[in-house]
Amino acid sequence: MDLNISKFSHFSFDLWLTIIRSNPEFKGKRDRLLKEFFSLDQDLDEIRKEVRYYDLLFNRISEKTGFHIQREVAFLLILKTLGKNEEEITTESLSTFFTEVDRLFLEYRPVLLWENIEEILIKIKDAGKTANVLSNTAFIHGQSLVKVLDDLGLSTYFSFMIFSDIEKVSKPNPKIFETVCRKVNEFQTVNKSEILHIGDNIIADFEGAKNFGFEAKLIKF
Predict the structure, then answer these.
(1) What is the pLDDT of residues 24-73, one digit of tens each?
(2) 180: which residues sit within 8 A by CB, 6+ positions away?
(3) How far apart are CA 134 and CA 16, in angstroms?
């Protein structure tokens, strides 16, 4: 990843498929947990297919509406599709399931996409510039993503982190870019055009940032 650091005052980074990607083992472990925890009859391939379908669907809905969809809602729909009676699924069982999912996520934590990402973040910091994370979340909450960035040794390079499950809105909603702008200007005076948002999604990251008034860089892994 190449960035013109001298051109901008602040750098906003998407997270998934911009800085990190899923551990190859995690999703298989999560889908097996889903099958065993809720005693599903379907084989793992069918379960994996349904989880993937809803993952993509809710990402598209977030892109279209700009609103965050709670993972509890997503998994209730997945379980209903897989034949479970939602009346039999308690709040406590969902909470316990997600506690186990989060544990698996940290055990099989994501991996870095770019070997030189820390080098880039160091250059930003050394140039007296600042950076943040701005990430839509789906099945994993922001607090777990913070722990991952801590483990990867990257969290200290970011002045703040914003996640859709906390803000209740998702990129490309201008409200979430406004939150970035407001937080940046709490510690430095920066115009919108001096902020560069970097991400992999043309709708959520590139068009969302540009429409708000940021500059944007689209990357592909």
Answers:
(1) 999 999 999 999 999 999 999 999 999 999 999 999 999 999 999 999 99
(2) 12, 132, 134, 162, 195, 197, 214
(3) 10
